[in-house]
Amino acid sequence: MLASLDDAKILAGGQSLGPMLNFRYVMPENLIDINRLTDLQGIHFESDGSVRIAAMTRQYQIEQNDQLHERLPIFREALRWVGHYATRNRGTIGGSLSHLDPAAELPGLCALLDAQLRIKTEAGERLLSIHDWTVGFMQPGIEEQELLTDIIIHPWAEPHGFSFLEMSRQHGAFAIAGVACLLAVDDKNLISKAAISLIGVANGAVRLRDAENQLLGQSFSHDLAEGVSQIIDELDAPADAHHSGVFRKRTAKTLCVRALHQAHTQAIQRRSH
Length: 273
Known about the structure:
By secondary structure, the chain is α+β, with helices and mostly antiparallel strands.
């Protein structure tokens, strides 16, 4: 159907597209409702250890899935920041990734976990790294005749700590800045693995690769966390009517230090159990 219609938009949960239609920000000639496509719904635990989340899976289903919480506990932590219960009841993971708001939590989590995105057309399918997904402001790397169908994630196998923090003007509002963090430690409590992603400070979610590399092999300290957070100053954070880019970066740096502390404390506790 996508191939046969001009100027078409996909309707998933409608939590982003609906308001945009109301305000006439977008005026497509055709809307394609995919809510009855059951193949695009559900959370699947694959034999290779990966987790496959179908694109039409509702955010509340991800938040409340206990098996997923055991494998990827940071999802429940982060989804509590997403809108309100009513919006999570309708909103989908695929819709959030396709809308690609720079302050959205789910793209940040997918970047943190190096997710792979399965994209299909009538002719076949392809896998795309989440790090190649954002091609511009609110512009995902998908063609008009393609459909995002699955998000594939390989959870960390080793015990690790996690943290998700964000700051917004009020609960449920878009994040001014947000930080997601995973840390693992070895038997000497040195950092053996690290992942940090930011939201709200660029056109899309940002992985702090340089900061992660600086953490590896180090004994955690507040000074270390403060030091690696300075990398955020290098970002070209956007400004709007409410917040300057400088304010967003300052907020992100503060949240980054706190998130690293929390993730490290958890990593120590989980390794000792």
